[in-house]
Amino acid sequence: MQHRPRLRPRATIVSSTLVAAGAFGLAVLTAAPAQAAPTATTATIDAPATVTVGTAFDVDLTIPDTADVYAYEITLEADSVEYRDDSVTGPDGGFDSVEQDGDALTIVHTRLGTSPALEGDLATSISLTPTAVGSVDLDVTSITLVGTDGTSTTLDDPASTTIAIAAAATATPTPAPSATPTPGATTQPGTGTGGGTGDPSDPTDPTSGATAVAATGGDDRPTGGDLAWTGADVAPWIAASIALLAAGGTLITLRARRARRDRTGASA
């Protein structure tokens, strides 16, 4: 029966590679001539005085006047903040990483391959996001510098600063615009709009007269509106005028006949 070879998990391969690299580095360090421990005496931290919940801000750390630094580890303690992934920056030619465990953040930098040791001012930066309102202390509790020969120098509590975390701004609701009367708009009688109350008994109300007229008409008011109502009022006068015209025409005819009879009698 043929057996297939078992494949090693990828994580095991990576771990083995790192172990081999570490062993190689130790061998190089052991073979290297002894040198003085890396030098540094202080550090500084810079951050905004006021930040806002939910808005990321940068924290800049500087270790001035160093010599023979092959790697360093910085421990920063701060509550109510979260590290923003992949935001760390450090000196060129090295590898940088950040791990957060509760309120403690560990910033690590190490040189790669044949990159030379560092000297002078070393600067690193990370981005943090506030999670709660309040006053927060950013304390650099420890910095460990490792030289090319494996010797180290440690600085205890070299720097700190305080920031104020404010609440995020909330949008102010915009009030709804009030209705603006249209110029020249017609006021409906009896509605009370345009300054009138619509009360027929109020003599100061410009709509009270129109309301009273409408009320006195009752159900006898024609359905045609104001014009139809006016036409119904003049109809009797028109009929009387026609009757008078007819009577006048009859009288004129009778007089003409009488005049002809008188002329005929005189001739005879």
Can you describe what's shown?
β6 (94-101) and β7 form a beta hairpin. The strands form 2 sheets. Strands 2-10-9-4-7-6 form a 6-stranded mixed sheet, with no helix packed on it. A 4-stranded antiparallel sheet has the order 1-3-8-5, with no helix packed on it. It contains 3 helices and 10 strands, in the order αββββββββββαα. The longest helix is centred in the last third of the chain and has 42 residues, at 226-267. Residues 1-33 and 209-218 have low confidence and may be disordered. The protein is of the alpha+beta class and 268 residues long. It has helices at residues 10-31, 208-217, 226-267, and strands at residues 44-46, 50-52, 57-69, 71-77, 81-83, 94-101, 104-111, 118-130, 134-146, 152-166.
Write the layout of secondary structure elements.
Blueprint: H1 10-31, E1 44-46, E2 50-52, E3 57-69, E4 71-77, E5 81-83, E6 94-101, E7 104-111, E8 118-130, E9 134-146, E10 152-166, H2 208-217, H3 226-267
Parallel strand pairs: 2-10
Antiparallel strand pairs: 1-3, 3-8, 4-7, 4-9, 5-8, 6-7, 9-10
What keywords describe this structure?
268 residues; alpha+beta; 6-stranded mixed beta sheet; 4-stranded antiparallel beta sheet; 3 helices; 10 strands; 32% strand; disordered N terminus
The N- and C-terminal alpha carbons lie at a distance of: 170 Å
Strand content: 25-35%
Shape: rod-shaped
Strand order across the biggest sheet? 2-10-9-4-7-6
How can the largest sheet be summarized?
6 strands, mixed
Instruction: Identify low-pLDDT runs.
Output: 1-33, 209-218
| Number of helices, where a helix is a run of at least 4 consecutive DSSP H or I residues | 3
Query: What is the C-alpha radius of gyration, as a whole number of Å?
Result: 53 Å
User: Would you count the extended β strands for me?
Assistant: 10
Helix percentage range: 25-40%
Mean pLDDT: 75
Order of helices and strands: HEEEEEEEEEEHH
Q: Structural class of the helix and strand makeup?
A: alpha+beta
